[in-house]
Amino acid sequence: MDESGIKKQNWDVKETELFLEILKELDMKKCLDGRKVRNNKLFKVAHRRMTAAGYHRSVDQLKFRWKLLKSAYYKCKREPDSPAPTKIQGWWRYEKTMVAIMESRHSLVGAGVNSDRNDEVTEDSDGDASMLHWPQPCPDNSTHNLDLIIKMDPEMDTQLKIGFIGAGNMAFGIAKGILSGNVLPVNVKVSAPSSRNLGRFQEMGVATTHSNVEVVCGSDLVFVAVKPHLVPVVLNEISQHVTDRHIIVSVAAGVTLATLEELLPENSVAIRLMPNLPCVVQEGALLFARGSHAKPEDGALLRSLLHRCGLVEEGPEAWIDIHTGVSGSGVAFVYLFAEALAEGAVKMGMPSALAHSIAAQTVLGAGRLLRDSGKHPAQLRSEVCTPGGTTIYGLHTLEQGGVRASTMSAVESATERARELGRKSATAGSRK
Ligand SMILES: NC(=O)c1ccc[n+]([C@@H]2O[C@H](COP(=O)([O-])OP(=O)(O)OC[C@H]3O[C@@H](n4cnc5c(N)ncnc54)[C@H](OP(=O)(O)O)[C@@H]3O)[C@@H](O)[C@H]2O)c1
């Protein structure tokens, strides 16, 4: 047992997901060569990032967690048809990222998938970090790449200048998340035509202006957070000031990377980010896609900046509209459900205010349990169902009402609508 008492504290889903995302990013830099000195540097960077995110594990604890995850991966590979009994609770959540990390490494070195020797470890046993061989030889490994990793460390965020064009709810939510990390308010500037939304940025110590050009000239990374129909207007205005040092991140729904790249100077680095409203309480779900000139490290930088806003994922642009359906609009679907829960309670005689606060807490608690337990929703649902009890009766009523089918259709409709708006914005952008 670790004397600090930290060792026995279980890893939750968010912590493990963040850890794997950090390792995935570092892996992408292709600076991993299997030598112990490099391994140590790698895990030290991961350690600093985890600490910055509020997770206080020692370097050895991180190494041991990696070893457990790797063991689970090999076990699943060896026994693909078995239910994969692993020591990692909620393994299914991490499997995709682990496969991405391990397969990219296997393709580089041609290693066999059955080669792990250390998979009979338990979460309670003491990790022997020296047994760990995280990286494998990588063809284009270089000291330069290692420097890049160090530069991507959150401490480096303190140097980065960040701009927001648009000062609305989304800009505010993202700015709040970024400022709760390593970015200093003096390095952030926000613009909007009126002053009505600027006060709350000033309260956070952020400089404000009415000039979009001033924001671009003073920033390395610029969030374009205006309404979608204003994106062409804004990009036309700033375009001549965008240089190859800039990363332009648009959060505008439906505005495609092709449109952004067409409106920006040639070879501009553009990223399309789709946040959702809970960013304002640092519980967002964010998905981004990189444009044709945005490098993996640009994505890694964005991910590192945004990790305080909630869950941050990268994917192909085609998924952005799906994300809009499931998460951007999905927030409203959950509100509808919460409202209906409360109204059911009111119908049964509970005072409205109490019913609404209980419904809100129920949605929050169920969401946190779902995220943090690592369990599949069906499993959690069955755990609440006593045979012949109240919940199974209620669930039967919901199924009779077609709640599952209509929710799936709602995500489908919202996704289709996002695609349709994207096509319209592309047509509008090309007319400019
Ligand atoms: N809200 C969401 O849940 C959500 C989710 C995903 C994506 N998004 C996207 O985020 C973007 C912003 O949404 P929002 O909800 O934050 O909108 P919002 O609250 O209406 O804010 C829009 C901001 O843009 C500013 N603005 C208007 N014209 C401008 C110009 N020419 N130059 C610079 N700034 C200008 C406005 O200035 P004033 O302050 O002077 O009015 C305002 O601060 C939209 O494209 C939306 O699609 C929103």
UniProtKB/TrEMBL annotation:
Family in the record: Belongs to the pyrroline-5-carboxylate reductase family.
Gene Ontology, cellular component aspect: cytoplasm
Cellular compartment(s): Cytoplasm
Pathway connected to this protein: Amino-acid biosynthesis; L-proline biosynthesis; L-proline from L-glutamate 5-semialdehyde: step 1/1
Gene Ontology molecular-function annotations: pyrroline-5-carboxylate reductase activity
Subunit text: Homodecamer; composed of 5 homodimers.
Phylogenetic placement of the source organism: Eukaryota, Metazoa, Chordata, Craniata, Vertebrata
InterPro entries, alphabetized: 6-PGluconate_DH-like_C_sf (IPR008927), Myb_DNA-bind_4 (IPR044822), NAD(P)-bd_dom_sf (IPR036291), P5C_Rdtase_cat_N (IPR028939), P5CR-like_CS (IPR053790), P5CR_dimer (IPR029036), Pyrroline-COOH_reductase (IPR000304)
Identification of the protein by name: Pyrroline-5-carboxylate reductase
Occurrences of domain Myb/SANT-like DNA-binding (ranges): 9-82
Domain Pyrroline-5-carboxylate reductase catalytic N-terminal: 161-254
Region of interest called Disordered, as start-end residue ranges on this chain: 112-138
Organism: Sphaeramia orbicularis (orbiculate cardinalfish)
Enzyme class: oxidoreductase
